[in-house]
Amino acid sequence: MGAPVATVDYARLPVKEIERHARSVHPGAWAVETQKPLSTLLGSCVAVCLFDPMLRIGGLNHFMLPDMGRARNGDVDSLLSGNFAMEALLNALINKGAKKVRLQAKAFGGGTIIDTDGGSLSIGMRNAGFAKEWLEREGIPLVASDFLGPWSRKVLFLPSSGEAFCKRMVTNMATADVIAREERAYAETLRQPSPTGKKIELF
Length: 203
What we know:
Layout: H1 15-21, E1 23-24, E2 30-33, E3 38-42, E4 46-52, E5 57-61, H2 81-95, E6 104-109, H3 120-138, E7 142-147, E8 152-158, E9 163-169, H4 173-191
Parallel strand pairs: 1-3, 6-7
Antiparallel strand pairs: 2-5, 3-8, 4-5, 4-6, 8-9
């Protein structure tokens, strides 16, 4: 028999080292892990971390609610991004054995660092409000959060322990450009009709 595979205790590492090992979650995506840290960079988007303390598994998503008034052709797929991101993360955890009644949440973002046609403040507030309303509706306690304000945020999440680190950043032009480019590209995909013509099924 081979030697057992050593696991890294990320909680004992400095934050900079955790960041180096982290799996990056981009706008419109989500991920579930048992060990590997997860990270994301937020502007007006919101990231929600869900954690099952008994199973010691967690996940993180990164979403933006679209401007519903701009959805093309009345395509409802583009109106469900926030709901879809939350349902996808929840069900990915449940499929790996997590129990909804045990889940805890931490959520971050909704900043106002970029001007998306004068609507970044509204988008950030809607994202933060949606996250809190969704969690309350589903009965998942929000145990920590950092929303709104004139900052971008770097979020690191340790799925094995439920720990989350949120660094507020006074955004320089280079960082703002990266965030703006990613969030605008993501927002544009939300406004496009579904390539399959099928509607998203929530479960």
